[in-house]
Specification:
Blueprint lengths: L6 E3 L4 H7 L5 E4 L5 H6 L7 E4 L9 E4 L2 E5 L4 H7 L3 H8 L4 H6 L2 H7 L5 H8 L3 E6 L2 E6 H4 E3 L2 E2 L6 E8 L5 E9 L6 E11 L5 E9 L6 E2 L1 H7 L6 H8 L16 H24 L1
Bound molecules: flavin-adenine dinucleotide.
Length: 283
Amino acid sequence: MTPEEFRYMRPGNLAEAVAALAEPGAKLLSGGQSLLPLMRLRFAAPKALVDLQDVAELKGIEERGSEIRIGAFTRHVDVAASAPWQALREAAEQTGDRQVRRLGTIGGAVSHADPAGDLPAALLALGARVELMGTSGRRSVPLDEFFVGPLMTAAQEDEVLESVFVPAEGKDSGSAYRKLRQEASGFALVGVAARLQFDSAGTCQAAGIGVTGVGLAPYRAGAAEEILLGTLVGDADVEKALGAILEGVDVAADAYASAEYRSDMCRLFAKRAIEAAKSQARA
Ligand SMILES: Cc1cc2nc3c(=O)[nH]c(=O)nc-3n(C[C@H](O)[C@H](O)[C@H](O)COP(=O)(O)OP(=O)(O)OC[C@H]3O[C@@H](n4cnc5c(N)ncnc54)[C@H](O)[C@@H]3O)c2cc1C
């Protein structure tokens, strides 16, 4: 099928992009890897597309104090090659195929809020935040408050997601993303990212766990993180944390996996991600 007719706009900077969103029925276009297939199927029919490809403010990866800023229009290939944190690079490397990674962007992936998106899991584990620019100015939102449901975020209609911020990698820290792919689509049946940081005595002083493919939206497994904090992340600590990884989550069941299988795989892939993050931190 072909999309319904729409107006095409190509702003040259961020202020123009925000202004263009005032057009009734306007929608932002980044890599088009989620939006264009929906338009071709006529599940989405925006009256106008605001193409962000010329907005220089949305591009690039740079240090900003204790954080790393990743512009929203940074492509998956560039995140895979140049982003900090192994978990983030691994999630970008495992997103779609080569063509999707060459075109898709981190801002598009976060804004699309797919319940099985890879990058959201890694970013949640890292404790990321996003900055949005709208007609009333710029605001910062922690990523675990940004995803509010399947394909739903806390962004307002007049806001452009401008940047994703992750903490700079500290000493004795490690991270990893482990994914069980759904064979036909390549999307995560389950994906888990873990980030750990240890002090000089080997005690865990920071823990982050992001889960995708399991609930209605990617989520941060706060109860499991709490269990790991202050421990040596030994086998018994990990087992205890795995017992809490699905706390408060309505586990999805579909044609590809029962809730029971998904829960088992979530614990298994969480174990692998935690162990990989630990061995990286100790390397
Ligand atoms: C064949 C195929 C396989 C895929 N496999 C995977 C996979 O395995 N794992 C995975 O995670 N994803 C997968 N994807 C999705 C892919 O990662 C997309 O690139 C990504 O979800 C959307 O990024 P995009 O830049 O293409 O955004 P677009 O498609 O351009 O936009 C997506 C949505 O975000 C909005 N948006 C875009 N940019 C902004 C912004 N800066 N501010 C606010 N809103 C914005 C748009 O209006 C739209 O609603 C796959 C896609 C395809 C086509």
